[in-house]
Amino acid sequence: MTNLKLAKLPDRTPAKITVTLSAGLNWALRDYAALYRATYGETESVADLIPFMLEAFLESDRTFAKARKDGLPETDTDRPARRARSARAGNTEAASPAVSSTSQFKE
Predict the structure, then answer these.
(1) Domain that holds residue 51
(2) Most exposed: 2, 17, 49, 84, by fewest CB within 10 Å?
(3) Into how many domains does the chain fold?
(4) DSSP letter at 58?
């Protein structure tokens, strides 16, 4: 086998994640998109900005970077995300964001 200078490329399969936001966070993200447009003269949707915002946030978190370098604790990634129960069911956590994740495979 030949040793190439370029290592094998990482998994680039996009993942689609659905997130439910509070009204306040939704408005803050819209305000950010408006400020982005005013600053750079280009219109980007909130959905297009969010992945870059999350990436910048994670890259700036030194504790997270150190934990990844040192090795994170193992988690059960095969288990589906929990769905928030409605407030009628007596769950006080119903107002917290709901997150689900699915992979988008290219054929």
Answers:
(1) 45-69
(2) 2
(3) 1
(4) H
